[in-house]
């Protein structure tokens, strides 16, 4: 498993965007490829927010988590 690489602010933003995307999906009554793509994006954003890990950020060498933040995260 990779080390935590998302800080508090980025985790909160990903959580909010993921939830807003799910709400949009429900209200817009999408179907087909749009539904699949947007649902996948929402799930990944929520998973990133919960785990504080992003594999894309690791691959790109990015880290928004300070050492103090990462050690405090569950």
Structure summarized in a few sentences:
The protein is an all-alpha fold and 74 residues long. It contains 4 helices and no strands.
Secondary structure elements and pairings:
Elements lengths: L7 H21 L3 H20 L3 H6 L6 H6 L2
Helix pairs in contact: 1-2
Keywords:
single chain; 74 residues; mainly alpha; 72% helix
Describe this structure in words.
This protein is mostly helical. The chain has one domain (8-66). The chain is 72% helix and 0% strand. The protein is built from four helices and no strands. The chain has helices at residues 8-28, 32-51, 55-60, 67-72. It is elongated and about 40 Å long.
Helix content: over 70%
| Rg calc | 14 Å
State the separation between the terminal residues, measured CA to CA.
Answer: 14 Å
* Class from secondary-structure proportions: mainly alpha
- The fraction of residues assigned to DSSP E strands is under 5%
Sheet having the most strands: none
Please count the beta strands (DSSP E, at least 2 residues each): 0
How many domains? The number is 1
Q: How many separate helices?
A: 4
């Amino acid at each position: 498993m990779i080390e935590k690489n998302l800080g508090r602010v980025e985790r909160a933003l990903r959580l909010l965007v993921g939830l807003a995307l799910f709400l949009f999906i429900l209200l817009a009554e999408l179907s087909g490829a749009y539904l699949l793509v947007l649902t996948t994006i929402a799930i990944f954003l929520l998973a990133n927010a919960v785990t504080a890990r992003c594999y894309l950020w690791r691959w790109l060498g990015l880290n928004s988590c300070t050492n103090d933040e990462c050690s405090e995260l569950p």
